[in-house]
Amino acid sequence: MWQYARQPYDFVRRYCGKKCALVGAWIYFRYGYFNDTLELAQKWKILITNQFVGDPRLPSTVDVLVLGGGVMGLSAAWAASKLKRKDGSPVSFVVVEKSDSTITSSWGESRILRLAYADEMKIRMMQRSYALWSTLEGIVKEELMQPSPMLTIYHDTTMHLLKNLTTAYNTLGITYRELSPREVKKEYPMVRLKRSDVAIEQTDGACIFATEAVEALKTAVGDDNIAEDKAVSVDVHNRTVTFASGKIVKYG
């Protein structure tokens, strides 16, 4: 068993001293031998590593450094994973997410995907996102979104925006229907509109399963490319980021 305990023993001795390492080795022998598992030693080693030298998955230099492991950060990392350098070698990248994150927008059961934008560029971006989500579904072999028609409702105060939306739809060849309050009541009985309201129905909407989507992106990015730490300062001039563990990473 000592051959398995030797590596974590040497590691902890380096950073914590001989006494701490001996205690750790005893714990490893006690639980590793009787329970026939390396799990405790592995967790212990990772804990010590993160505390003293930072997450080992966080390199000192990297081409693309992504701060934040939500849907935006993971999507950026997924895109980076497909990039190549001029010599044809893959671009190096890492996502850094703080483990104690309490403020995030990538949470909950679902989010809405829709083309209800008067800006043609935004519509094209959303159409592209539909294709990417479908690609991701193929990678993880799991349903991530549910198609659903979408209603955009215009009231007296927003009626001037209606023409902008329909103009964008017509320019891009997107099909839609303009529904009166009576038609909405008939087809969507749960919705009640005023007589002066107008609804635009567009069938290329979808509901995306938020939690599953984030987990799918993590799978596509790869666990080895996701590190835990907290950025405390960014030096744009020198292209470095300093983390709570004390580690400084140079990017670009």
UniProtKB/TrEMBL annotation:
Keyword Flavoprotein annotated: yes
Family: Belongs to the MSOX/MTOX family.
Top-level taxon of origin: Eukaryota
Pfam families according to UniProt: DAO
One MF term in the entry's GO annotations: sarcosine oxidase activity
Keywords associated with the record: FAD, Flavoprotein, Oxidoreductase
Official protein name in the record: FAD dependent oxidoreductase domain-containing protein
